[in-house]
Amino acid sequence: MAVDYDAPRVTPEDEPNVALDELKTEKPGRREAAPDVDETDLADSFELPGADLSNEELQIQVIPVQSDEFTCMSCFLVHHRSQLAREKDGKKYCKECES
Asked: DSSP string covering 26-52, please?
């Protein structure tokens, strides 16, 4: 929706008076916000520091760095070679860390 920022602003005195009952009535296109998820459900997924994870198994596949990728020596993230900003003494730095 376009907004005309040059149009004169409406002051509270110039606004039409709308009855409180009219504001409280639900408009046909209006939606209620979705209820939040119960906090107790979220708490079940949290792991406490020092928890025994010896019986847990890694569920992801780790892919080694590809030939067209590098690891930034500042942020230690793997980037595509197009993000290479500089290389100094064999150490590579990404554009985001160099800006």
From this structure: PPTT--PPPPPPPHHHHHTT---TT--
Q: How much of the chain is helix, strand and coil, in % rounded to 5?
A: 15, 15, 70
Q: Write down the residue that tokens 């019986």 correspond to.
A: 55
72 contacts 94 by C-beta, under 8 angstroms: yes
pLDDT in tens, 5-57: 887 777 767 677 777 777 677 666 666 666 666 776 776 677 777 878 788 88
DSSP-assigned beta bridge partners for residue 69 = 80
